[in-house]
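Quick one - first record:
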Amino acid sequence: MKATLALLAGVSLASALAAAPAITEPVLDYTVVAGDTLIGRTGMLLRTPADWREVARLNRLPDPNRILPGQRLQIPLRLLRAEPTAALLASTQGDVRIDGQPAQAGAALLPGQRLSAAERSSAVLVLGDASRVVLAPGSETQLTEHRRYAVTPGPGATGQQPDGLFASTMRLVRGGIEVLASKLTRAKPLEVTTPTAVIGVRGTEYRVRLDGDSATGTEVLAGMVQADPARAPGTVIPGGHGARLQAGVPPKLVALPAAPDVAGIPGRFERPLVRLVLPGEPLDWRVQVAADPAFDRVIRDLRVGAGAEARIADLDDGVWHMRVRRIDAEGIEGFDARHAFTLKARPEPPPLASPPAHAKLPAGPVDLAWAANLEAASYRVEVAHDARFEHIVRRWSDLSAPRATLPAAEPGSYHWRVASVRAGGDVGPWGDGQQFELRPLPTLPQGGISGDGKQVELRWEGRTEDKQQAELARDAAFNDVVARAELGEARWAPPTPAQPGRYFFRYRAVEPDGFTTPWSGTLAIDVPRDWRMLWLLAPLVLAL
């Protein structure tokens, strides 16, 4: 027959009860039922049956042969029959190891063994009482104690109890863990030890994190914990509070920072490198990314400075889960804000090659070119007047080669972008748009004769802010230039040639930003032998 136990407040250092004094060590409170004898009952529970005498002594029983129904006995845990048992590795993500050897979900973690998770890796450990321990990326812990006591809880127990009572202790070696301690009755509180503190809990949710070898940070999200720094008085930390635990320093409770506002974080990202900021945040913040909404499979764990940008790389396309929390000046981390997002970054858009960004081109056809993407079977291309691509000028939906030609377009500002398409129709995101500008072509020059008929004056349309360059040559190819000028206005009176014959004129503008237009069309000028009488402007203007 199994014993019936009444565990007051679960189990721990019991308070003084009726005829039994308080015992300053972990105990079980046993409620005597009809038919019990001390020797008979303890013989079933104790490692060594003869230890009933110590039970009688500790409980100050005047007559060990006489115990009454309803009477409570305190039995030290050290005397009870127990056996080491394994905890279950319920979930793994990435590189998880037990004592340095690769481990997968379903593996057993025995007392004394170490569980580690590399960077970008995590694990979930389930203890015998159904408590869950999440090992953060870059962390390591040791299961120092995990015992099952062959007893069942009695009327004071709550919830669905496993067969027996458990006592568990974990030692945090590096990094951090998150604990969701079940509300089931235990043989003693679940304990987490660090070089600077011992943290004991019953049913609660909390975090423990090492800050080097000098301090331990803990935050209680629900319930409460007993935090005992080394060589200093301990304290109870209630839900919604945290403390920095240092050896020899009494802990100071602080309220957990509130969850930040993540409403501004996009729900979709289209670049392999996910970038996000929390504008206006005065505190550092932590961001974690997991493959599941329960955050059992955490793959990124980053601390980000106030106002800085979080950069998360190497995520696969799909749905991801993010949680973000503030970190105060003492390193205490607050409540989580959660956010789900979709990553669709592949096939990646190709880099744009030509025209280069912010290129200035003369109005006319424009050749567009981009780098080939080996994942792409075809490409989509858009050209628009605006950066939001709301006013489309031209669209191509199925280009097999990494190039296209935009037919002659009006002068103005244009934006273009490209997306890759896999075989089968999987369309990747648009690449970043790139801008170019088409500048007007030079107008045809005009000319007139001065009042005395001895000088020609050439005029053309030009902007006052532009510089003008003009040339006069003996040949249409302008290999034999007889005069050139840099001008501040769009007119020129070239020197009269020394010899008669046909001459050729052209101009171009240099804009304030350095853009130089193409040469204008060529104007032919005939200089007669008696050039003093008249210059003749040829009616023919040569093509650009």
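second record:
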Amino acid sequence: MIQGIGASKGYGVGTIVRIEETDLSFEDKKITDVDAEVARFQKAVEDFTEKTMDMAAKMREQVGEKEAEILEGHVIMVSDPAMADEVTNQIKDGTCAERALWNVCDMFIQIFSMAEDELTNQRVTDVQDMRNRLLKILLGKEEVDISQVPKGTILAARDLTPSMTVGLHKENVVGILTEVGGKTSHSAILARALEIPAVLSIPDIMQTVKDGQEVALDGDLGVVILDPSEEEKAEYHAKREQYVKEKEALRALVGKPTITADGKQVELVCNIGKPQDSDMVLERDGEGVGLFRTEFLFMDRTNTPSEEEQFQAYKQVAETMQGKPVIIRTLDVGGDKEIPYLNLEKEDNPFLGYRAIRVCLKQKDLYRAQLRALLRASAYGDIRIMVPMVTCLDELRQVKEILGELMKELDQEQIAYNKEIKVGIMVETPAASLMADLLAKEADFFSIGTNDLTQYTMVVDRGNAQVAYLYSAYNPAVLRSIAHVIACGNKAGIPVGMCGEAAADEKLIPLLLAYGLDEFSVSATSVLATRNTIAKWTIEEAKALAKEVEGLGTREEVEQLLEQRKK
């Protein structure tokens, strides 16, 4: 048995087809005819753009909008002057196109690799995929084609890039195995969109398996069995059939309210990173947007997005959601989210330093542009503003003061906006948790960010493998913090949501119901499964379970009990 990261749920039994990486070695030669070499590079970019847009169109038709945008992002990247001009300049200095491309891409890879956030790290894969495909064009090499793999195939690759999956017939592929990637990587996103079970981050999988070898895999637990016995194959086939039946049953929940078994209704909304993601919210029956991460509007570019650009993005989401609530988090930069053009100084401990609201309140012009854009967009839907990384009342009050000034400006300019716009905070620091009763008197809503709340409460760097065992929302200290925040919000009469990973955890959901959580914000793909879990519990049952958990002192004890009580 081999252990990896379960990245796309489901079970698969099939035979291995290995996807070998193309040899991209090249002669690092000095160029004398620089004009011809520049023209060769520009022709390669043109070919790349044409092929990639064709791929994106196929991806949009076969998989979905979000996945197509990954490929379209590669075109934007290669067209960015910060990249294209630097490659051209190096060629003009006598460097061959292949080396110039490699050098410039390597610079961007290093920048993105420094971030500890997996979403930012994913840009490393984007740059690598774009670079490798451009190199293939320059070297006259063919793209990898996996469209013809036979039925019952389990794909094994170092990484499964978006360009590889174009034309893939998902009915022929029963599993995916890769050496790299995590739950938020493109491999994982694509696998989930294609509804193919996947286990990622398996060390040396390409050296471990061979073509034609039989394999069974569990895409939830991240388990891979090589050369399974007849009994094991039968077990995994049965699990696969049961999983398919359960997925079919979930479709019956489309259009249904999100209610507990005894009739208590809660909100089930979605986390998004780009305006286009709002389409997926509606497709997957989300009841609104609980978190729009606006920092992604600021990434993958060389300058700050203008007020107008931001306005159009926020307006698009508001209009798409057709009156459903849209909670938009103001810029959360710093920590593990690096935006080079903001010129933030390197810090020894960025998670405890200059990030999120601290940056925004110091860079007022940057923040005012975002808040003006949000106010203007609020005329087109139920937009709500959420302030990240709050540690004291002063920060919330300063945001409200700036908003008050901007409202006066918009009134003078006769620009429409929602004069009753709601302003809430993310509760993701121990300080905000301890001050929740006071913050609840001045915030219109709370949203608990369990990822950072867990990290800060347990004093653990979630990217550090040495202390990763401490990073768990099952820890009694974290659960007590969550319960306290919800209780303070309930007492003050303001809604309390959760937008961290814990909101979709089927073991934790009954505890959150018992504590009185009003809103669950999850990924669009988790909506129906979360609705299904909520529907299994009465509030009385959930409170009885919470009472049992209350007396437990370790993460292991909590997790074990919740696993036993899982419905």
